[in-house]
Amino acid sequence: MEIDAFFDGRTVALEQMLQAREERVEAQERLIKQYGLPVICFTLNIAGPVKSFTLSRKAFDIGKGIIKKRLEMNSDVLAAFEEKISDTGCEAFFVVTGDASNIKEQMAVIEDHHPLGRFFDIDVISPDGRKLSRTDLGMEARRCIICDAPAALCARSRNHSLETLKEDTIKRLKGYFDDEYSHRIASLAQRSILYEVCVTPKPGLVDCCNQGAHEDMDIFTFMNSASALYKYFYRLTMLGLSDESNDPERLFVRARHLGIEAEEAMLEATNGVNTHKGAIFSLGLVCVAMGYLHRWNKTENLENLRDMCAKMATVALDNDFGKSGPKPVKTKGENIFVQYGITGARGEAAGGFTSVTEYGLPLMCRLIDRGFSLNDAGVAVLINLMAHVDDTNIIGRSCPETLMELRSTIRELIRDREPEAWDIKVISKKLDDIFILINVSPGGCADLLAITFMLYFLFKSPSGL
């Protein structure tokens, strides 16, 4: 990791920093004179001649939000707010109603306990112009970010080199934001598989009403699996974020080992039942790809995500179905490819999830925009996918002829009507009876529904990223 590359701001001289400090004091005095209330002055402790850079500005935004929330929790009213972003660093001024000593205590808690708190410098100036110190309130002095000794002592004696401080700064800032990002992506992946199983009614599949064509699993089996998979979605995202090769093939090989671990965790959580093998592969690719795009500062949009997933999945196609030549068949998916040439989840991903972008995501967006619930939009998307996709789960439990007959039945039920006009409950009930009778399940389409939810959350939903 090249540390200096993260300090992507301008170098400032000592004279500029001294001038900025004078202007900061003038701003504090002006606000106290204008409002006669305590003033919070928030800046960052950043070592070195570059004070404003991408990670520091992100940390500043986090700090601002935390201060505002803490004031709200303490019932302190924000009377005025100002901020200044410049090469000499980020500054924010909060004019607050309330007791200055209590506010200082609250700000010290943030400095001491938030993961980024060691970078936060939160001064509180009382209405008489006096800057409150920790010692005024009987609190312990701040500790050094490196060795945990008193910070003032380390600063005076220069116990740590500038390079050490810079390296620690980037390690902590990048570590914090990578962790937050990975948790966010993992939570969306987990939410997607939970939404998929909860969508009701789903023909032949486990939902909130019945087990579909599955005697060995119910909705709680899926809940157990989803709970076990969260940490793997997190680790897969972190894998993309830590990539140094900028090589999709090498990244996929590393990701596959985590995918195998995830499958083992799923089977342990479900007592040997396969609930999410396809979703682990597909959503795992999405998690890795999102981490990769973020790591290399590429635009995080649908086009780039599809492209990255396709590059990684092509490795799986080549390894499992292509370049390596004939080999013993290990999985149902491989057997279906050998017999019928259908590539299943690997092919969907290698194509950039074309079925999702043609039959899933556009329809979900359209229906939700027209007032459909996520549940009803999910049912309609599933039916639309079932009408068009070569579902290897259906083939694996029957044959290609049965798949074609089922697709013909679905198309007859929807009769080329617009999805808004579908009676999804009636259609789903008729299909559910058929799927249960012949003991088949459109599990491949269920995985595509989960991916549709994931892409919706990532790129279309206001509550996503």
Q: Can you walk through the features of this model?
A:
The protein has helices at residues 3-6, 14-35, 54-73, 100-113, 151-157, 162-198, 219-241, 248-269, 277-295, 302-321, 332-340, 344-350, 354-369, 374-386, 392-397, 400-414, 424-438, 443-459, and strands at residues 39-44, 78-86, 89-96, 120-125. The chain is an alpha+beta fold and 465 residues long. Helix 6 (162-198) crosses helix 18. It is elongated, with a radius of gyration of 28 Å. The model has no long low-confidence stretch (mean pLDDT 92).
Reported for the largest beta sheet, the result is: 4 strands, antiparallel
Distance between the termini: 26 Å
User: Strand tally, please?
Assistant: 4
How many helices? The count is: 18
* SSE sequence, one letter per element: HHEHEEHEHHHHHHHHHHHHHH
**Percentage of β-strand residues:** 5-15%
Which labels suit this protein?
single chain, 465 residues, alpha+beta, four-stranded antiparallel beta sheet, 18 helices, 62% helix, elongated
In short:
The chain has helices at residues 3-6, 14-35, 54-73, 100-113, 151-157, 162-198, 219-241, 248-269, 277-295, 302-321, 332-340, 344-350, 354-369, 374-386, 392-397, 400-414, 424-438, 443-459; strands spanning 39-44, 78-86, 89-96, 120-125. With 465 residues, the chain is an alpha+beta fold.
Describe the secondary-structure layout.
Elements (H helix, E strand, L loop, with lengths): L2 H4 L7 H22 L3 E6 L9 H20 L4 E9 L2 E8 L3 H14 L6 E6 L25 H7 L4 H37 L20 H23 L6 H22 L7 H19 L6 H20 L10 H9 L3 H7 L3 H16 L4 H13 L5 H6 L2 H15 L9 H15 L4 H17 L6
Antiparallel strand pairs: 1-3, 1-4, 2-3
Helix pairs in contact: 3-4, 6-7, 6-9, 6-18, 7-8, 7-9, 8-9, 8-10, 9-10, 9-18, 10-12, 13-14, 13-18, 14-18
